[in-house]
Amino acid sequence: LPINRGRYNFDRFHIDFYRDETVLIEALKAGEVDVRQETSAKAWATAYDIAAVAAGRLILQEFPHQRPTGMKAFWFNTRRGNLADRRVRQALAYAFDFEWTNATLFHGLFARTTSFFSNSELASVGLPSGRELEILEEYRGRIPAAVFTTPYQPPATNGSGQIRANLRTARNLLAAAGWRVVDNALVNTASGERLALEFMLHNSAAEQYVIPMIGNLERLGVAATVRTVDRAQYQQRVHQYDFDIVVNNRGQSESPGNEQTHFWHSSAAQEPGSSNLSGIADPVVDELIGRLIAAPGRAELVATTRALDRVLLHHHLVIPHWHARALRTVRWDKFGQPAATPPFLRNRFFVTTWWHDAERAARLEANN
Questions:
Q1: pLDDT of residue 345
Q2: Going by C-beta distance under 8 Å and a sequence separation of 6 or more, which residues neighbour residue 176?
Q3: Residues 314, 320, 322, 323, CA torsion sign
Q4: How many other CB atoms sit within 10 Å of the CB of residue 132?
Q5: Which residues lie below 8 Å from residue 129, measured CB to CB, with a gap of 6+?
Q6: pLDDT tens digit sequence for 205-226
Q7: What is the C-alpha separation between 251 and 69, in angstroms, rounded?
Q8: Which residues are CB-contacts of 243 (< 8 A; sequence separation ≥ 6)?
Q9: Can you tell me whether residue 139 is helix, strand or coil?
Q10: Mean pLDDT, the chain, as a whole number?
């Protein structure tokens, strides 16, 4: 078949599974594994400082892609009364120092996520224009006014770890939403209730960037805690929406459709176990989802998706994290690669387009 021309060039694939990534990396460096897609920023930056890499026998190679990376983020549960106000959620985003986190923990290898459809043509950028603006104009007065005047951008810092200016902005937003600091505690002026938040995790690895954020929240007077639970308990609590904030990665395809109903529609907001994690229930979002599903062509689909993305972003349902704009691979120099790769393959781990290069393999064997 034409679609398979140039693919599946190996007689046999042999796949080994390792329970420990450290052992896997050592096996790769020892020549027990030929190729690996490296997803750890720390490993990419620090684990391959060996002679074989310096000599060009073991190759670290990045392949830029345009695959939608979705939204990895802190996700708010807007069903909680203290998180129902959009201004509160917006304010809390100022307590997350992405620039410091990226530089200190991830060696500066990630890009900040600014869209639910990040790294693709589906993402909203700048101010709305063209067909996207025409769609949004139909909802003027029913969506946040900032959609038309302010491009969405998560709060940024200089990476020093000193975020006093951001916390000052956060405090002003919280004050506008009816929260005041009393005896170092952030309390609601109407109810007297203190703002308390729990970050629920199922992986202790996330604690390394959650704990610094908790420190920033405490400077605002928020009583913030982190709880790491086993996966079964985590799944049960998420299904019942028994959480304040979780870390979640909502993936997206290059052609969004019916699944958006499960992600954002009002009908899924209170349904136990649904994918509407944030609990958003907005009639405009419902209508945009319907338009997206019924889009007659690609241009209309892209414009509608961008409009939906923009409205969702200005609801401040999440505090965006980061994404990688390239596939990172580590391989022994025994393969040939095509000069050009079709986009639909370039956006994936496309080892199926490679082939065994006998000359390279012989040279590698002689030098090892």
A1: 65
A2: 87
A3: negative
A4: 21
A5: none
A6: 899 999 999 999 999 999 999 9
A7: 6
A8: 77, 198, 200, 237
A9: coil
A10: 94
